[in-house]
Amino acid sequence: MHHNLIKAGLCTLIFLIHSFLFAQDGKKISLEDVIKKQIFLPQTVRGINWMSDGQFYSSLKEVGGHSQVVKIKLATGEQTAVLIDGRELGLNFTEYAFNPEESMALLASEVESIYRRSSKAVYHLLDLKSGKLRQLENGEKISYASLSPDNKKIAFVKNNNLYYEDLLSGEKVQVTRDGETNVIINGAADWVYEEEFSMAKAFEWSPDGNKLAFIRFDEREVPEFNMQKWGKLYPEDYHFKYPKAGEKNATVTIKVYNLENAQSETMNTGEETDIYLPRMYWANDSETLAIIRLNRLQNQMDILFAKVNTGNTEVMLSETSTSYVDLNYNDNFIFLPENQGFITTSEKDGFKHVYHHSSNGEQIRQITRGDWEVTSLVGVDVEDERVYYVSTEQSPIERQFYSIGLDGKKKKLLSPQPGTHNINMSPDHRFYIDTYSRVDRPLQTSLFDRKGRQIKILEDNQELQEKMQSFDFNEKTFFSFQTPDGTSLNGYMIKPPDFDPSRTYPLLLYVYGGPGSQNVMNAWGSSRDWWHQHLAAEGFVVACVDNRGTGGRGKAFKHSTYAQLGNLETQDQIAAAQHLASMAFIDKERIGIWGWSYGGYMSSLALMLGHDTFKMAIAVAPVTTWRYYDTIYTERYLQTPQLNPAGYDNFSPINHVNQLKGNFLLIHGTGDDNVHFQNSVDLVDALVAADKQFDSFYYPNRSHGISGGNTTWHLYQMMTEYIKEKL
Predict the structure, then answer these.
(1) Which end of the chain offers a freer environment for a tag, N or C, measured as fewer CB atoms within 10 Å?
(2) Residue-wise over 337-375: b if at least 16 C-beta within 10 A, else e?
(3) Do 474 and 571 fall into the same domain?
């Protein structure tokens, strides 16, 4: 599998990617620079909406503390108008959407986050011709308000029910009446679908605007999780439905509401109800709904076509796997007009590729092929008969943009620059916006035509680029190595700015390591990466290795950890530390590892199972037994605890406390709705029983991201001090 690396010039042990050298007599990167001042955070272009005439796009910007939506001409990239001015309206909005006619805009303000993707907000409707602004629902917070394609209605979710409002008559219609907290949800995802199927809104307007397809979650049988909210004389209980591995999920149905006769029809998704229905897509007509169905073990995915007037369905396409069919990974579905079928992606040949199927589900052809992955299906231009996609063909640690004929011929690389490209393409496929970065280059956002010709740089982060010159640091360098069993792994390393190969340095490994994830990427770093740069400035070598199970390298590599999470990954992290320890400049007596979430699970296991190699670990918000994590994620990779108890228990840190040696710091937020504080409480209990000394810290009421107010600063200060003291 490592031929991709050789192709990308990564076969040497370590190579530098920079195109220019940073000053070596500059300032030291401080913790304040990274966390408080956030100096290394690049500027982005926000809220891009392609406009219907194909000549313009709109974008959200902040001017003098107020939001503006501006209109940009595609041919030149120049701003031609201010479409919405928050200051004139007296409204500070953070999200906007136009109706298809672009005569009205929906503006969201006071957005209140619920979980990772869910939110509610005050919505306002702006008539762009008259300038008239009115609040929806008298300013009460609602969720996912969206305008219908026929410009006449707005649908939204409030108190677990689906509603729509007729904009001409002002009439409000309540589509569902059984919504109730922790009982029934209509039109919005439950906790586990939101977290693991990456969705929040669960309704869609039909193309003609006369029907609403929505998902209904019946949560009555789902066990309830209870967290305490601290800060009052009597702390409050917070209850929500959270299905842990092996427990009951919500019963899910898909319904289509017909606005003309005010009737709902339930789509027939089969006799078995212990299933997942995570996606629905309207076909080009308003009579057919495509539904994705997964079985409980997620090793069979079916695409059903439903006739919405009767609810009758037909299975058009089925895919099975001996491990799992990854929906989030195969979440691409594009209908072609005039019964030309549909385009989708699959990992079935060992790498994720693009396939063309006829309207009855038969495979017409595999469009892309090779020992590399399509990571994103960007669009299909039917007139030009070209498919646009992003892939790992150049290197698994990069992402480049390509087009290819529908016939699988005449492939063209549209983004020749090395690094990571993220593409937003116009619906008519004539233009695209490329947000691109490398380890030595902050985000550059540019407008291109479909041939790959640059029209305008929209944001080049020149100021940040210049600011970098005044700091003294060593760039990330990439390496690959072979583990004892012959697996090639990719990693990066950050050396201290005044690196001296004749000295020895303590080593800190950073790990996430979860299925399909990637940390080793040729892209501009997050604040976590810049914290690593601060640690390097304090005299540490920081490194990161993507273990087996991670993404970008095909199905066999990613699925190798199936049914035994933690086993191969821990072996690989220990092998990585030992490989680095063999280098003359690493002090093998001072090697630490840290990680968050899955990374906290990994750092705990690494110190327990690899205590001869590691001397210190920090685990932030770790899973300590997979029995405590949710159904969708955990069962996808481990089956159920009933079917695979050994897979759950053999590599749970809670069962390896006797092997703990060295320094261990455990950190968790008590309000973590995702990886529950219960994980750390039970690990502490097990460590005490095993007579192990360790350090721990909890953050009251903080969620999985452990943030808010002074929290992030406090956390990173504490971790920095711990690393300095223990390594």
Answers:
(1) N
(2) eeebbbbbbbbbeebbbbbbbebebeeeeebbeeebbbb
(3) yes
Last residue of a domain, one of 460, 481, 505: 460
What's the one-letter identity of residue 705? G
pLDDT tens digits, residue range 566-604?
Answer: 999 999 999 999 999 999 999 999 999 999 999 999 999
Domain count, the chain: 2
Under 8 Å between Cβ of 156 and 143: yes
User: What distance in Å separates the CA atoms of residue 198 and residue 196, rounded to the nearest whole number?
Assistant: 6
For the chain, the maximum distance between any two Cα atoms, rounded to a whole number of angstroms, is 81
Contact 631, 654 (CB under 8 A): no
Residues 397 and 471 in one domain: no
> Residues 644, 525: one domain?
yes
User: Looking at the structure, do residues 472 and 456 belong to the same domain, yes or no?
Assistant: no
73-85 pLDDT tens trace: 999 999 999 999 9
Contact 316, 289 (CB under 8 A): no
Q: What residues make up the domain containing 498?
A: 8-39+466-726
CB 366 within 8 A of CB 353: yes
User: What are the φ and ψ backbone dihedral angles of 651, each rounded to 5 degrees?
Assistant: -125, 40
The single residue listed with the structure tokens 């001042």 is: 37
Strand order in the sheet with 431-438: 420-425, 431-438, 441-449, 454-459
User: Is 505 in contact with 539 (CB distance < 8 Å)?
Assistant: yes
Let me know if residue 639 belongs to a domain: yes
Q: CA-CA distance, 129 to 113, in Å (whole number)?
A: 32
- Distance, in Å, from the CA atom of 55 to the CA atom of 459, rounded to the nearest integer, reads 20
Q: Read off the CATH number of the domain in which 403 is found.
A: 2.120.10.30
Q: What is the spatial distance between Cα 31 and Cα 702, in angstroms, rounded to a whole number?
A: 22
- Asked whether residue 409 falls in the same domain as residue 356, the answer is yes
Residue among 302, 298, 300 at smallest CA distance from 290: 302
In which band, very low, low, confident or very high, does the pLDDT at 64 lie, cut at 50, 70 and 90? confident
Q: What share of the chain is helix, strand, coil (3-state, %, to 5)?
A: 15, 40, 45
Q: Are residues 445 and 472 in the same domain?
A: no
Q: Is residue 112 part of a domain?
A: no
- Condensed to tens digits (0 to 9), the pLDDT of residues 676-695 reads 999 999 999 999 999 999 99
Q: Which of 460, 481, 499 delimits the end of a domain?
A: 460
Residue 388's nearest CA partner among 444, 456, 317, 449 is 449
CA 301, CA 290: separation in Å to the nearest integer? 13
**Sheet bearing 300-307, strands edge to edge:** 275-282, 288-295, 300-307, 313-320
417 in the same domain as 482: no
**Token pair for 219:** 């949560």
The Cα 400–Cα 391 span in angstroms is 6
Half-sphere exposure at residue 381, Cβ-oriented, CA atoms within 13 angstroms: 18
Please check whether residue 366 is in contact with residue 386, taking contact to mean a CB–CB distance below 8 angstroms. no
Q: Give the Cα separation of 694 and 367 in Å (integer).
A: 54
Tens digits of residue pLDDT in 1-56 = 433 433 333 433 333 334 334 445 689 999 999 999 999 999 999 999 999 999 99
Is 424 inside any structural domain?
yes
What is the token pair recorded at 150? Answer: 């026929």
Q: Is the pTM of this model over 0.85?
A: yes
State how far the alpha carbon of 566 is from the alpha carbons of 27, 281, 511, 513, 637, in Å: 40, 36, 12, 9, 11
8-state DSSP, 331? -
Whether residue 587 contacts residue 541, with contact meaning beta carbons closer than 8 Å, is answered with no
Contact 425, 403 (CB under 8 A): no
User: Which domain CATH number covers 688?
Assistant: 3.40.50.1820
Spatial distance between the Cα atoms of 527 and 196, rounded to a whole number of angstroms: 25
Q: Would you say residue 426 lies in a domain?
A: yes
* Two tokens, residue 726: 């223990």
Q: What residues have CB less than 8 Å from 37, skipping those under 6 apart? A: none
